[in-house]
Write a structure and sequence with these properties.
Structural class: alpha/beta
Order of helices and strands: EHEHEHEHEHEHEHEEE
CATH architecture of the largest domain: 3-Layer(aba) Sandwich
CATH superfamily of the largest domain: Metallo-hydrolase/oxidoreductase
Number of helices: 7
Largest sheet: 5 strands, parallel
CATH topology of the largest domain: Rossmann fold
CATH class of the largest domain: Alpha Beta
Shape: elongated
Strand order of the largest sheet: 3-4-2-5-6
Number of domains: 2
């Protein structure tokens, strides 16, 4: 392999990332006790998590719905490729509100408290597809991205004021979320398996990229290329980085809210 572009987010975390299977017992326990609707907030790209929880929902007699465009797009793509368990009972979002409360599990966008996302609308009773009642449950099967702590805490409080049962990694005594980012031992195993000539660390702050590079070099990788946004990474004939190749940064856009063409 000429070059390997590798995630650096958890490079400073020792050991291995936990398995996705660690989440399953926690979700099963929660669903076994909840008698109302269950809403799940997780990253839309985490197809493995969606598949795990959707299977548990089906086994417990619940239909599985989706609220949010990014979730619908990701799930549709995964369905086309056969990633989901065929036993899962999917239901169109327009029918969710008519089902008995104990037959519903819905994945919703907005686990990071994004304004306008499905979870935010549900928290203020503004979602057109369904409304939550006291005794329903919201499960946050995701981590909090640094910087989002305040807005997510506010979302928790809004649900709790409605009498909604809120579950998140900070208030349960078992695993409700595992990271998809490799830890130190995961990185070492990967480098030893694929033996790339060059590694290009990405996804993280400079300190994470540097740690990832050090791990790769200690595993026998010949060269690590470190750079920032806008740098050009040349893989051959000689691996190198051309600094500042492209201009990057914030790009101001005109206010197009009143433009009928958008």
């Amino acid at each position: 392999m000429d070059a390997f572009i590798c995630d650096s987010t958890n490079a400073q975390e020792p050991g291995n990332s936990l398995s996705e299977s660690e989440v399953e017992p926690t979700v099963k326990r929660i669903l076994s006790h909840e008698k109302g609707r269950v809403i799940v907030g997780c990253f839309s790209s985490n197809i493995a998590r969606i598949n795990t929880i959707a299977k548990i929902a089906t086994e417990s007699g619940r239909y599985v719905g989706l609220l949010g465009r990014s979730l619908a797009v990701m799930v549709d793509c995964a369905k086309e490729r056969g990633y989901f368990d065929p036993s899962i009972k999917w239901i169109d979002s327009q029918h969710i509100g008519y089902l008995p409360r104990d037959e519903v599990l819905v994945f919703a966008t907005g686990s990071q408290g994004e304004q306008g996302a499905a979870l935010t609308k549900l928290a203020v009773d503004l979602h057109p597809a369904m409304a939550l009642d006291a005794g329903d449950a919201v499960i946050f099967s995701s981590s909090i991205i640094p910087g989002n702590e305040v807005v997510i805490e506010r979302l928790f409080l809004k649900f709790e004021k409605l009498g909604i049962h809120v579950f998140h990694p900070g208030n349960v005594d078992s695993t409700l979320h595992v990271s998809g980012h490799p830890c130190e031992n995961d990185l070492r195993q990967m480098y030893q398996l694929i033996c790339p000539n060059v590694v290009i660390p990405v996804h993280g702050e400079e300190v994470h990229l540097g740690t990832n590079a050090d791990i790769a070099l200690s595993c026998g990788v010949n060269k690590a290329l470190l750079g920032l946004n806008g740098d050009l990474f040349c893989i051959s004939p000689e691996p190198r980085v051309i600094k500042g190749f492209a201009n990057t940064g914030r790009l101001p856009l005109p206010d197009r809210r009143n433009n009928n063409d958008t």
